[in-house]
Design brief:
The structure is a homodimer. The first copy, chain A, is of the alpha/beta class. The first copy, chain A, is about 35% helix and about 30% strand. Chains A and B meet through α1, α2 and α3 of A and α1, α2 and α3 of B.
Chain lengths: ~400, ~400
């Protein structure tokens, strides 16, 4: 057994007080085996969504600084309760907020990035034999304000803390058994993968797989921190994320998994007079507002006008339109259209680098299943198609079959 | 209008997002009149009780440090939401946690006392024209842990901040119109008092009146901070708390109000061998556990054994018994009995100092209404009787009639 591990428990794993007591017993078992352990927790169940809903009852567009402060309470509640559960089982444990854990972030309040971790308090607790339980997803800015890391930020917190503590590994415990060849709720014969590369998990995460936040995977890759995704409900092995050269050979030569993402809204600026600097003029202000832009498509210009389409998270749609609409008027574009009911389906696999033919097979499978592809983007090891949300189940099942992902 | 006021909004006044938006408009009106204003807020409605209930589902005896951390989230949520509501009305506002507001406490995590306030951040916000909205009830220890001030701690926070800022006055906004001659829910013809002295409000608070926390009244008295208790639902004047010499003459010569308290549990150590130091031996460990002991009665010793009775808050009963029972065995006491269903009724009024006869009139009225008095304690301006909880309504109405408190 390694000397120090970080375990992160997600929202579904701590959704009720009974589940929190189960998590306490599981953390305690690691401690009993003589391994030092640090816990990182998410907010209970749907708490974050509930808090956002409360904020929206106060104002349609909550200010970031206060929204971050509001949301940060969710993880603090879980950390306090899990620590209580450990103490009641007879273990020394200490709940720490992001600030107490020394997590310093930049001042983008609701989508902050971790700048560094000053882990002296965590070390102090470990040195006394206590189990530190850290509220994930949050940190502290130089202005002494609370910032949150955005969705999936607890994964990032856990990996960052594992790196700061030089832990032996970071375990991400979830309500799923590991990384699957597709979402098992949509594809019943989806297969759990024993290994996956950082590169692949990163692409899956970017393509909408909820299994591990891309920033967490990136951090893990950069610092070589081994990450294990496994179930919080039983002790089965889960999926180990490794560097590509440590992958078993069988996994390297094919499409590994299908990802999908329904948190997609599309915006199209129609009929923009095509001048140099147009794309910069559109996307610089959006980036400045810390809105993540995903699939960008600019059609070939005809009659000197072009259309620019891109996607954002659905929660960012209103805010993005508020930025884009005046810009489009300035640029004398003809119109701005948008849709809040789009989705992405993607195939991911390191094998795609060396082998052609994947794209054609993907488009064929989607066409056969009756899916209309609205736009396409690719990376070295991923192909993503934008489709209508309603077609996601059909599309994912068709792709899983086409690439025979049920076969080991 | 004064230049700077602190307004504190209690849990019922911020129980829903609609109420929070009302509070925002009220705070904004003060700001519009050119008065600088600082808000201090409680947790929404029953949030604190709900959080305690969640903690109890995890462990029957939550550890203080983590319970404080858990409870502190309630006020942070309200501060964030009220600030959002102000911003959406077009006002600059900044939510501050107890730590950000510079509130330093001692390390008694769930019943902390404010040591001092370092108000530089509050000043910084005021100087930019923003309205600081502070999460009440909480502070920060030298160990960088979060502590909460115990029930009523938001009142104390508000008065302490008013003092630190040298505000012109501190307004406590509640779901009642001010201080009444008795609880209007029990006595329909109870009268609102326009003025009351610090001394009287202090005795009323100690006797169980929920209208202002005794520590808040004490702080106000010590530093001469004018406090106004008024409704959060309308702009009527409320009750102004003043020093005794500033009281209108009419109020000085009589019983002013009836208070009652049903959060009372009684413990009796039966048949203690009477030696010097017995009382110290019992109460020193209870005080060390930060449990407030109230009515203490030690009967005259006969045959060299005595009974010691005292009351504590009901939530402290289990914890107190756990301390008292081993002590009683060591002292060779015969038994420890307890009851969790006691109550106190009190008459309070500065006029009682100079005029005898109040006690007899009180005991007579209680006897006539069929109430059994279990024990009696008095201060200079208060007489308190311990009775059975079930008899509270009858007793309060009988006393209100006996002292003609419906008459102006």
């Amino acid at each position: 057994m390694p000397g120090l591990i970080v375990q992160k428990y997600g929202g579904s794993s701590v959704a009720t007080t009974d589940l929190i007591r189960n998590v306490a017993r599981r953390v305690a078992r690691v401690h009993d085996r003589g391994t030092r352990i640090v816990g990182v927790v998410s907010a209970m169940g749907d708490t974050t969504d509930d808090l956002i809903a409360v904020a929206k009852r106060v104002t349609s567009d909550p200010p970031d600084r206060e929204l971050a402060l509001l949301l940060s309470t969710g993880e603090v509640v879980t950390a306090a309760l899990l620590t209580m559960a450990l103490r009641t089982e007879g273990y020394e444990a200490t709940a720490l907020t992001g600030f107490q854990a020394g997590i310093r972030t930049n001042p983008v309040h609701t989508k902050a990035q971790i700048l560094d971790i000053e882990p002296s308090r965590i070390h102090r607790e470990l040195d006394t034999g206590a189990i530190p339980i850290i509220a994930g997803y949050q940190g502290w800015t130089d202005d002494q304000d609370i910032a949150v890391l955005g969705r999936g930020g607890s994964d990032t917190t856990a990996v960052a803390i594992a790196i700061a503590l030089e832990a032996d590994r970071c375990e991400i415990l979830k309500d799923v058994d590991g990384v699957f060849s597709a979402d098992p709720r949509i594809v019943p014969n989806a297969r759990k993968l024993d290994f996956i590369s950082y590169e692949e998990i990163l692409e899956l995460a970017r393509a909408g797989s909820q299994v591990l936040h891309p920033r967490a995977a990136e951090l893990g890759e950069t610092y070589g921190m081994p990450i294990v995704v496994r179930s919080s409900f039983h002790e089965a092995e889960g999926t180990t994320i490794v560097t590509g050269d440590k992958m078993p050979l069988e996994g390297r030569e094919r499409v590994r998994a299908i990802a999908h993402d329904t948190d997609v809204a599309r915006i199209t600026i129609v009929g923009v007079p095509d001048r140099p600097g147009i794309a910069y003029g559109v996307f610089a202000p959006i980036e400045a507002a810390a809105i993540s832009v995903d699939v960008i498509v600019q059609n070939v210009s005809h009659q000197n006008v072009t259309d620019i389409s891109f996607t954002v998270a659905r929660t960012d749609l209103t805010r993005t339109l508020r930025i884009v609409e005046p810009l489009a008027r300035e640029m004398q574009a003809q119109d701005v259209t948008s849709s809040g009911t789009m989705a992405k389906v993607s195939i991911v696999g390191s094998g795609m680098v060396a082998n052609p033919g994947y794209a054609a097979r993907m488009f064929g499978a989607l066409a056969e299943s009756g899916c209309n592809i609205i736009s396409i983007t690719t990376s070295e090891i991923r192909i993503t198609c934008l489709i209508d949300e309603a077609q996601v189940p059909v599309a994912v099942r068709a792709l899983h079959d086409a690439f025979r992902l049920d076969e080991a």
